[in-house]
Amino acid sequence: MAGSGRRPEHRGPPELFYDAAEARKYTQNSRMIEIQTQMSQRAVELLGLAEDQPCFLLDVGCGSGLSGDYISEEGHYWVGMDISSAMLDVAVEREVEGDLLLADVGHGIPFRPGTFDGCISISAVQWLCNADKKTHSPPKRLYRFFSTLYSALARGSRAVLQLYPENSEQLELITAQAMKAGFTGGMVVDYPNSAKAKKFFLCLFVGASGVLPKGLGAECTDGEESRQAKFTNERTRFKNAKGKSAKKSRDWILEKKERRRRQGKEVRADTKYTGRKRRPHF
Amino acid sequence: MKLLTHNLLTSHVRGLRPGGGYPLGIQATEVKLSPVDFNAQFVARMVPKVQWAALLQAAQSLGHGSDLPPEPAPGYESDEDFLRRLHHVLLEVEVVEGILRCPDSGHEFPITKGIPNMLLAEEET
What we know:
Chain A: Residues 204-279 form the 18S rRNA (guanine(1575)-N(7))-methyltransferase Bud23 C-terminal domain. The complex is a heterodimer of chains A (282) and B (125). With 282 residues, chain A is α/β, with parallel strands linked by helices.
């Protein structure tokens, strides 16, 4: 992805950002390909499709067809929609198996009711949150997208949308419009404690209310849990009127040791001698 | 664009009466045939989703309508011959260049390199 550390949505609309040069990167950057493939795998897994049954899926923001290729590998058929003709040209070059549409999903999903057995989207939906034209209203576009997607999906099917929300307000806006459109479900977060590995999958159900799948990497060992509980108790002791522990006090020492433990450094165990007053000759 | 996609595609121009955007009329200037592996289970599952009259009309306009019956016969799931012919029409006939026309609004969606351009002007959304 270009400009690491900056969000591509801030540079301009997707059809201009994903030009021929950027599109070429997507086919040549092996790390990008690996990440996109992994996310596609996870998204298809979260779809919960019946085993050994070829399905008809929609890929929103299909781009150069990286995710579509994975869908084909799994034996399913698909239609992809993308707003960048440069990216779709690459998909055609790569001879992807799905049919492609040049479209703006903020205008709606132009398919008959109940067409698809499922929908995935990899790294695309956050682009709907930006108003690139004066006439754009992100909440309206999001609602148009979700309500038409809801209709185009068969009863009992799911939409799994992997996205990069900029902040919690954006996440709330997206989820709110999805619920307004009739979807149930929620956010599945993989590896919530890792800045790099953390991934958001908006898991939406049509009709039947399903059980939300669990995010990966969210389990704690018993040891960790008890340490976490202990830390929470200790925390209330640490705060004085200013909200900080007095420097060099026993509380401060314990807090600092906890901080270092969380950073993974080697720290001596807390004992009754920790922060004990020493003899005055020091 | 395959005929399966065409059969499921509607126009999403704003303000149309329900069903007014379907079926999209096809005017093809270039059609190609590409082999696709036959999967009987998939084709059988698609039969209920397909609007048969629109499929016949589209296939005939491209010169591939003669292989299909006027209606899918009961028991089609096990009729391999029927499924293979349907597979050919749905998945192997592709419109490479042409135009799709919305029946009610008249909006034209051009097809280039097999990709329909479904972008709308802001007034139409």
